[in-house]
Design a protein that fits this description.
about 425 residues; Rossmann fold; seven-stranded mixed sheet; 13 helices; 21 strands; about 25% strand; elongated; binds ligand PMT
Amino acid sequence: MNNFKNKNIIVAITGGIAAYKSADLIRRLIEAGANVRVVMTQAATEFVTPLTFQALSGHPVFVGKQSDERYSESNPGDTASMKHIDLARWADAIIIAPASANTIAKLAHGRADNLLTTLCLASEAIKCFAPAMNRVMWDDPGTQENCTILRDRHWSQFGPDSGMQACGEVGEGRMLEVKDILYSLGRCFRSGELQGLNLIISAGPTYEAIDPVRFLGNRSSGRMGYAIAEAAREAGANVTLISGPSHLSAPESIDFIAIESAREMQQAVLSNLDNCHIYISAAAVSDYRIEDIATQKIKKTGDQLTLKLTRNEDIISLVANHKTRPYVVGFAAETENVIDNARDKLVRKNLDMIIANDVSTSSTEKPDIGFNSEYNALHVFYAKDGQICGEQSFDLARKSRLAKQLISLIARQFKNNRSENEKDTA
Ligand code: PMT
């Protein structure tokens, strides 16, 4: 079965008799672990009621209006509603099934005259459509051209199938069977960009014990690192995730090593480094540890307590200077001079790439990003032979979305580096 665990998927339904099959699509996506929201055109509601999809998805259904920003729901009193931009950002993928000739035409020409088309225009999610229409409409050159336009714009087209149609004719135009839509949708999440490569990813905080019940820690939740681990797995990599304490569950099909302290993380990273192609250090590793960990709970005796700290080794620098050095990607969590500090760390720690994120909370304009948030905004620098040779910004987005974008960038830069190194040694 396809694994859609934690994937945010919008099932968009347009007017067509195949709309009844969307109920099965939604049910199976949910069974496979996806979070599903349903968007319908007004025409679709004439075939199946929004209530059916609301019951299946467990959420209000968004029914588009002929307006740019407005929408209505089958349950207008629901407070968990989202505006179309929120919905566009929320989605990892949008699958339009069934996709009518009319909606395909609108999308091909950039129209935004209902919620569904507006959403598609506003979203950077994976976009797919499963055409469903009468065979003559399907054969029409206009429809064919519109589908070509969408495919050229990186839409994935699933089907159509051929066979008996609802109108009694036989030919091409039937919506693809749900199991085939699910299979194709599952493939969209797997890019193959890191096929067969071995990655070590560190995530989460480290805890430095003070005594048997207390520790020094930080606010890292592990979300960024876990999202990168999942994106790398979907890109075909063999992933080892080394994680500090986190409330997140270990992702499936990944080698998972749980550690607590920086020294445990160091040991886990170094002992897995053989055959590692890429090391991504998203963990917030403690720079210091307690010099002498008390063996018994420290008692409240005086007004002050002094803890003596000793510096931890910088794990990423050890990796970057290791004899079998992988491609090394660091993060820089900064509260000030974000860009300058990140550039400095890239060069000083001898990294191939650094991903800077602003973790200050001083600006009221700054949205909730960085530590312990679902969202982040990033600026990436990459280097060749110790010189910064490129940069790229990633605007505010969910960490799962950013992780996919980062993995694509890392895969490209890793391959560039490898082919340049091969040329140098030829
Ligand atoms: O976990 P989340 O809640 O999702 O938050 C994500 C995050 C903010 C923790 C993440 O995006 C991030 O920025 N991680 C790195 C945080 C950090 O400690 O940055 P730093 O600037 O102190 O360290 C720079 C780099 O050196 C990092 O790659 C770090 O992993 C590494 N390092 C640091 C210290 C040390 N002793 N060993 C290291 O390897």
